[in-house]
Write a structure and sequence with these properties.
Blueprint lengths: L16 E3 L2 H6 L7 E4 L3 E2 L22 E3 L4 E3 L2 E5 L5 E5 L2 E15 L4 E2 L2 E7 L4 E11 L8 E2 L2 E6 L4 E2 L2 E9 L4 E2 L2 E5 L2 E2 L2 E9 L7 E4 L2 E4 L4 E3 L2 E8 L2 E4 L2 E4 L4 E3 L2 E2 L3 E3 L3 E2 L2 E4 L5 E3 L2 E2 L3 E3 L4 E2 L2 E4 L5 E2 L2 E3 H4 L8 E3 L1 H4 L2 H6 L10
Parallel strand pairs: 1-2, 2-4, 3-5, 4-8, 5-8, 6-8, 7-10, 8-11, 9-12, 10-13, 11-14, 11-15, 12-16, 13-17, 14-18, 15-19, 16-20, 17-21, 18-22, 19-23, 20-24, 21-25, 22-26, 23-27, 23-28, 24-29, 25-30, 26-31, 27-32, 28-33, 29-34, 30-35, 31-36, 32-37, 37-38
Length: 356
């Protein structure tokens, strides 16, 4: 094994450094702009003291290179009390792809923003976070840490940066706003991704968490969430809580996506999206089937509150399963109707029915 010296390569696109073991992965911080490719499974259990793993990339020196996980495993990532807690702390115009993180435990961040893979990603290109998967626990043990995601805490891009990514596990927080199963704050478009498990955000004192969603905490202005889905149960006593998306900004679109998890919050709570903000935000060809509970106002089977409910088109929710007969947009259906392909054919969806 290479033990920090890599298994070959010179760090270029055509000849990347070959990452063989935990020490090689640690050594990535020595050249933050190079190309890397993982060629074996890696166990990070060797970094098991002093808060565990130190994230690669900081505010002053972000990772700007390419890391290709090669589809191999990275096991036993543990991060506690480090700046931008994650595998990669801060990345800028970088690329991460084909990464499989297993048995992850990210406990707290000393400076806000937490994620299983990346804490904060800026200036990201198309598909720059591609085919990345995290299984484990994100446990925000310090109050008021904002922007927490199973994959990315916060992501900025003029493109669709996140594609084919998944999170399976649990996210805990206290007074934690901008929390999502995939990304906490998405100033990027996201597609073909899903989250499965649960999010539990507690509230203490006068603070109230908001913008909590099964896949996205908040979807930014003019960004799009497409072909995404959530099996996350979302439980908080905050507001702007959704089975898929907590809240949107102006011009944000949620297209051909769905949520099946149960959702519980206070104000602006919806089976799919909690708050569809601005008259230009849109939901199209989506559905939700989970139970929806809210102790305050603006509670809806599909959408909790919407500035323009007419922008919710060709979308449905299960009245019986959700326990909600109303929504700020969308069409309520019985459970039997939700299971009937004709419901979606009538809405103009492209439905493939396998012949017997």
């Amino acid at each position: 094994m290479a033990n920090g010296l890599f298994g070959g390569g010179n760090g270029t696109e055509l000849d990347p450094y070959l990452v063989e073991d935990a020490q090689d992965l640690w050594a990535v911080r020595g050249n933050l702009s190079a190309h890397y490719k993982q060629i074996y499974n890696i166990d990070l259990n060797v970094f098991n003291d002093d808060g565990g793993w130190t994230p690669v990339g900081t505010t002053s020196t972000p990772f700007t290179g390419v890391y290709d996980g090669g589809g191999f495993e990275i096991r036993n990532l543990w991060v506690a009390g480090k700046e931008s807690a994650s595998l990669f702390g801060r990345v800028n115009n970088a690329k991460t792809k084909n990464i499989l993180l297993l048995n992850v435990l990210v406990v707290s961040s000393s400076s806000g923003r937490m994620g299983g893979l990346i804490a904060i990603a800026q200036n990201m290109g198309e598909d720059s976070i591609y085919d990345c998967h995290v299984k484990g626990i994100i446990n925000e043990s310090v109050q008021n840490i904002f922007r927490i995601g199973g994959i990315v805490g916060e992501c900025y891009s003029n493109f669709s940066a996140i594609n084919k990514c998944t999170f399976e596990g649990t996210i805990y927080g206290e007074n934690s706003s901008y929390t999502g199963g995939i990304v906490g704050e998405a100033r990027t478009s996201i597609k073909n991704s899903y989250a499965k498990g649960k999010i539990e955000i507690t509230c203490s004192g006068s603070s109230a968490p908001d913008r909590v969603g099964g896949v996205i905490g908040e979807l930014g202005a003019d960004k799009e969430c497409s072909y995404c889905y959530s099996f996350m149960d979302v439980n908080t006593n905050g507001e702007k809580v959704g089975g898929l998306v907590g809240s949107t900004h102006g011009g944000a679109n949620i297209i051909k996506s769905w949520a099946r998890g149960n959702v519980k919050g206070k104000n602006y709570v919806g089976g799919l999206v909690g708050h569809l903000y601005s008259t230009t935000s849109r939901v199209n060809m989506c559905y939700s089937t989970g139970k929806v509970e809210g102790s305050g106002s603006n509670i809806g089977g599909l959408v909790g509150g919407a500035s323009n409910p007419a922008k919710v088109t060709y979308s449905v929710w299960d009245i019986e399963a959700s326990g909600q007969e109303t929504s700020a947009g969308g069409i309520g259906k019985t459970t039997a109707e939700m299971k009937d392909p004709q419901t979606y054919i009538d809405l103009g969806w492209a439905i493939y029915i396998k012949e017997r």
